[in-house]
Amino acid sequence: MAAPDTTDESPSDRASAPLAERPAHDRAIVWIAIFKLVKGGLLIAVAVGALKLLHHDVADTLTHLVQSLRADPDNHFIHKGLTKLGGLDDRKLEEISVGSFFYAALLLTEGTGLLLRKRWAEYFTVIITASLMPLEFYELIEKFTLTRVAVIILNAVIVWYLIVRLRRTRTAHHLVRRQSHAGSQVADGSSGQATGE
To answer: Which of 68, 93, 117 is the endpoint of a domain?
Structure first.
């Protein structure tokens, strides 16, 4: 079966096409949406975990968790994590929880809007992602890790891709409007000549 010709479709017509018939650049939006939704889900887990640790001895609770997972508490990374997290007090846990819930809400809004192919979600994602990049750079300067570098690069690529996509769809939308406007003027002119004779 031949692929349908989509050269005469407006951007809104393409938005209603089935997923299998959409161009590859629309699949990129799906991957960005999944990335945002996964990050949002992980942040909700962090926020709920921080709430569960409230009014508990964090060090004891985490040590018990490590032992129940049969992980080696003497492992360098686990020991470092236990030491760092063990010193959290209730105030800091509340701050982590609130911040994580707030950021998760932004990410889940972005991801859901992108998955539903909403144009506002593309603008929203560009604005939110770009506005948080200075904070990511600050964190990278504070402590350099390859993970932070990868996140910054990935977010920069997402912002760049969405800006290019928004410009293309805006140009295509204006072109379609001009063509339809010009077509209606031609139709109006020919009907006016026919009635004028």
So the answer is: 117
Q: CA-to-CA distance for 157 and 168, rounded, in angstroms?
A: 16
**Would residue 101 count as lying in a domain?**
yes
10 within a domain of the structure (yes/no): no
Q: Please state whether the predicted TM-score (pTM) of the whole model is above 0.85.
A: no
pLDDT tens profile 180-190? 766 666 555 55
Rounded CA-CA distance 158/150 in Å is 12
**Rounded to an integer, what distance in angstroms lies between the CA atom of residue 193 and that of residue 64?**
87
Residue 107 to residue 36: CA distance in whole angstroms: 5
Q: Looking at the predicted structure, is the pLDDT value of residue 8 above 50? A: no
Q: Which residue has the higher pLDDT, 101 or 172?
A: 101
Are 126 and 92 part of one and the same domain? no
H helix intervals, the chain? 11-15, 24-53, 58-68, 76-86, 90-115, 119-142, 146-196
Residue numbers of the domain that contains 97: 23-117
